[in-house]
């Protein structure tokens, strides 16, 4: 709990001490901002085929990332989480991230950038956001360039999960193609008299 360390960025998954890093972050109440970078094994739509064609180094990186995510799932102090180029199509990774999203009551900002989401992973994250008890803490959500390999109706489920996030000030769904279900869910969000949204970004969604 070093008081000098409040922001952490993690890049490399070849290291075999990723589990220790995750556990350290999970138990460190001083960390307020976490950015996870570049867990970008080749995207495959069917998760059960994910391990095919991977070499030993790829498998080790995946195991390291799973261990890291399980460690950070215990953290309850992080206020800002960014996932950049992290392909979340492993069930163990999804379970850990879902736990983090549900139970970290201090979380204010969620950003997923170029983190390819399959139908399954999108539904898991949507369910976690729906189950979150303290929705009021979230003020910014940014999902940008994450929709490839995911059906529009499933992306709409993720937008629907934002119902009840009345303190949301910023919502960015850049090149996400939310589809008709997403548009309807967004309309419901905006028409809610409790909605406090100030900034909405929807470029390249094929709306209209």
What does this entry look like structurally?
With 208 residues, this protein is of the alpha/beta class. It is built from 6 helices and 7 strands, in the order βαβαβαβαβαβαβ. It has a 7-stranded parallel β-sheet with strand order 1-2-3-4-5-6-7, with helices on one face. The longest helix is centred in the first third of the chain and has 17 residues.
Work out the helix count.
6
The overall average pLDDT, rounded, is: 83
C-alpha Rg (nearest Å) = 17 Å
Give the DSSP E fraction (strand runs of 2 or more residues).
15-25%
Uncertain ranges = 42-55
Strand-pairing-aware structural class: alpha/beta
In N-to-C order, the SSE pattern is EHEHEHEHEHEHE
Described by the principal axes of the CA atoms, the overall outline is globular
- How many beta strands in the DSSP annotation? 7
Helix content: 25-40%
Main beta sheet: strand number and arrangement?
7 strands, parallel
N- to C-terminal separation?
50 Å
How are the strands of the biggest sheet laid out side by side?
1-2-3-4-5-6-7
Note the topology.
Elements: E1 7-10, H1 18-27, E2 33-39, H2 56-72, E3 80-86, H3 91-103, E4 109-113, H4 119-131, E5 140-144, H5 152-160, E6 170-174, H6 179-191, E7 199-201
Parallel strand pairs: 1-2, 2-3, 3-4, 4-5, 5-6, 6-7
Helix pairs in contact: 1-2, 2-3, 3-4, 4-5, 5-6
Summarize the structure.
With 208 residues, this protein is an alpha/beta fold.
Summary tags:
single chain; 208 residues; alpha/beta; seven-stranded parallel β-sheet; 7 strands; 36% helix; globular
